[in-house]
Amino acid sequence: MKFWRPGITGKLFLAIFATCIVLLVTMHWAVRLSFEHGFIDYIKRGNEQRLQLLGDALGEQYALHGNWRFLRNNDRFVFQILRSLEHDSGDDRPGPGMPPHGWRTQFWVVDQDARVMVGPRAPIPPDGTRRAIIVNGAEVGAVIASPVERLTRNTDINFDRQQKRTSWLIVALSTLLAALATFPLARGLLAPVKRLVEGTHQLAAGNFSTRVTATGADELGKLAQDFNQLASTLERNQQMRRDFMADISHELRTPLAVLRGELEAIQDGVRKFTPDSVASLQAEVATLTKLVEDLHQLSMSDEGALAYQKATVDIVTLLEMAAGAFRERFASRGLTIAFSLPENITVFGDRDRLMQLFNNLLENSLRYTDSGGRLLISAVTENQSVTIDFADSAPGVTDEQLKLLCERFYRTEGSRNRASGGSGLGLAICMNIVEAHGGTLNATHSPFGGVSIKVELPLERDLPRDV
């Protein structure tokens, strides 16, 4: 046997509807209690006032006659007094002890010896309301009324029952209206949630192009915006992964094809196994080794797995050391290195990783700068940060190529291509190292006709020491 399990819309509807029902029932009982107490208090105050008036009128008659003989067993006389006290006419045929109008209880008139002169044959209740009749300072009798909580007239009982029926009818109609209003309200409130649920199912199925409509500026609207941002990131990462795998396959295919061709040529006797052929094979192996090492370094820096042991580092000293190691290689290609550096610049960073950063940038300029060119390394401190500029000479790149220069495996056409021996990963690795130090890396046009790589790093006092 299967039981109905409501969805989130049904649960929200039941929660709101149940809350409405509880509120309606609570309000019903509160109104009923308030009405009953108020009704009884109203009757009580009216009866007390009438008791006082009746007592005063009987006292005047007692003073006029001198005794109670005129009243004994003369209920009609009392009712005449009551009718004279009332503004409206009442029931002309009251029951025993029941006044014509305005009264909701039985009453008795007793003399000074507590003997009943007027009233029903029922015993006088001990908790009744008593008003003494005073003549010349002496109590000559009393008027006693039964408790007002005991409704005795049919009109009172019928009125109370009518109020109960009306109150429950109002509760029933209010419940129906609450149900009619709650269901569309629940559907409207949960419409954005359902869109997010459907979008999540699409993401889980691998459809990263899905988007949801972000309506409103509340929490659900912000959640929809975050969902769309997440979907965009996943879609971009998926495309980057596909491109990355395609680029790796392409990069590995070329040196492997060269190796295979040369080995087959040697095997077939087309090419002799000489030191030159061995050197050619070693060059291709070196290219593969460099590519694999760059891929490893890139994956490590992407995951944050590179060990960073930060301390106070003088950037100027590191730049001079790195340039000194490259000076002979630059000279062999007819390139010159010039500096425009202050005496010292200290940052809080990892000496080895910063040296790797500068070596990659120097290697990049060495590979892609035409013979006879130059490289200017300058540094400027401003706004609690230092900007290090590696500006080389021709060849340059276009504006479109400049935007893609830091992309993985990207190499421009012409002189800055694979013929120069690069893997297209050096600047991507540099980007990760700079970001790990809280800085930024950007490529712009060099004033010397080449490319300018600008590295901005926070100065030492601006970096946290929690690494």
TrEMBL record:
Keyword Kinase: yes
SUPFAM superfamilies xref list: ATPase domain of HSP90 chaperone/DNA topoisomerase II/histidine kinase (SSF55874), HAMP domain-like (SSF158472), Homodimeric domain of signal transducing histidine kinase (SSF47384)
Transmembrane segments annotated in the record for this chain: 12-31, 168-186
Signal peptide interval: none
Domain HAMP: 187-239
Biological process annotations from GO: cellular response to phosphate starvation
Main localisation: membrane
Chain ranges of the Histidine kinase domain: 247-461
PROSITE patterns: HAMP, HIS_KIN
Compartments reported by the entry: Cell inner membrane
Membrane topology field: Multi-pass membrane protein
Listed name of the protein: histidine kinase
Catalytic reaction(s) noted: ATP + protein L-histidine = ADP + protein N-phospho-L-histidine
GO CC term (a single one): plasma membrane
GO terms of molecular function: phosphoprotein phosphatase activity; phosphorelay sensor kinase activity
InterPro entries (alphabetical): BphY/WalK/GraS-like, HAMP_dom, HATPase_C_sf, HATPase_dom, His_kinase_dom, HisK_dim/P_dom, HisK_dim/P_sf, Sig_transdc_His_kin-like_C
Keyword vocabulary terms for this entry: Kinase, Membrane, Phosphoprotein, Transferase, Transmembrane, Transmembrane helix, Two-component regulatory system
Organism the protein comes from: Trabulsiella odontotermitis
EC number annotated for this UniProt entry: 2.7.13.3
Pfam families: HAMP, HATPase_c, HisKA
